[in-house]
Amino acid sequence: MGKTTTEMQIIPLGKLVPYVNNARTHSPEQLAKLRSSLREFGFINPVIIDRDFNVIAGHGRIAAAKEEGITEVPCVFVDYLTEAQKKAYILADNRMALDAGWDEELLRIEIESLQGADFDVSLTGFGEDEIADLFSGDVEKDVKDDDFDLSAALEKAAFVERGDIWTVGRHRPQAAGRPPRRASGRKRRRSPRSKSRRRA
């Protein structure tokens, strides 16, 4: 069997030593999500530490636990890593998680299942905007372009007045701009000069 952790203990937070050069940051928004997760699910994912109680993984969970007033957390001891390996694993543990993707079809099924169970889906870590974007893909797939040429249809119109509403395909454009000048009904009188020219 390869190298693996074999020991877990409940350790007071005051004994844990965060890694001073931890490059991973935790925003207030993320800490709020972590705190909500701790309240709903409890402290499930243990912190990884060495025999000197130096934290290798779990800095965000520790910060959230402190804000929640938790005084002890589960920790797994890792005592076979070199100092270089510890540094590398601190980076790898955070970076490799970013390479994972989502099967959006299965994700929609799971979210819908939780919604059907009246479960607060925000506890999954997904925000309202992310969930809305996830399901908006279904709506876009159902909409098909009818290839209607609006410009060509308007060119065929023989007479358009301002304010007219036309039904062209799925579109209802309204005419704008200056209305055409209407004839006054009066006949234009010819000047005597023009009459004399015709007689000539």
Q: Please provide the count of β strands.
A: 4
Report the uncertain regions.
none
Number of helices: 7
Sequence of secondary-structure elements: EHEEHEHHHHH
Q: Gap between N and C termini, in Å?
A: 121 Å
Mean pLDDT equals 83
Tell me the β content. 5-15%
Which secondary-structure class do the elements indicate? alpha+beta
What does this structure look like?
The protein has 200 residues and is α+β, with helices and mostly antiparallel strands. The protein folds into three domains: 7-99, Conserved hypothetical protein from pyrococcus furiosus pfu- 392566-001, ParB domain, CATH 3.90.1530.10; 104-142, no CATH class; 145-176, no CATH class. Helices cover 39% and strands 9% of the residues. Strands 1-4-2-3 form a four-stranded mixed sheet. The model has no long low-confidence stretch (mean pLDDT 83).
Supply the key terms:
200 residues; alpha+beta; Conserved hypothetical protein from pyrococcus furiosus pfu- 392566-001, ParB domain; 3 domains; four-stranded mixed β-sheet; 7 helices; 39% helix; elongated
Summarize the structure.
39% of the residues lie in helices and 9% in strands.
Detail the topology: elements first, then pairings.
Blueprint: E1 7-12, H1 28-41, E2 47-49, E3 55-57, H2 59-67, E4 72-77, H3 83-95, H4 104-116, H5 128-142, H6 150-155, H7 192-199
Parallel strand pairs: 2-4
Antiparallel strand pairs: 1-4, 2-3
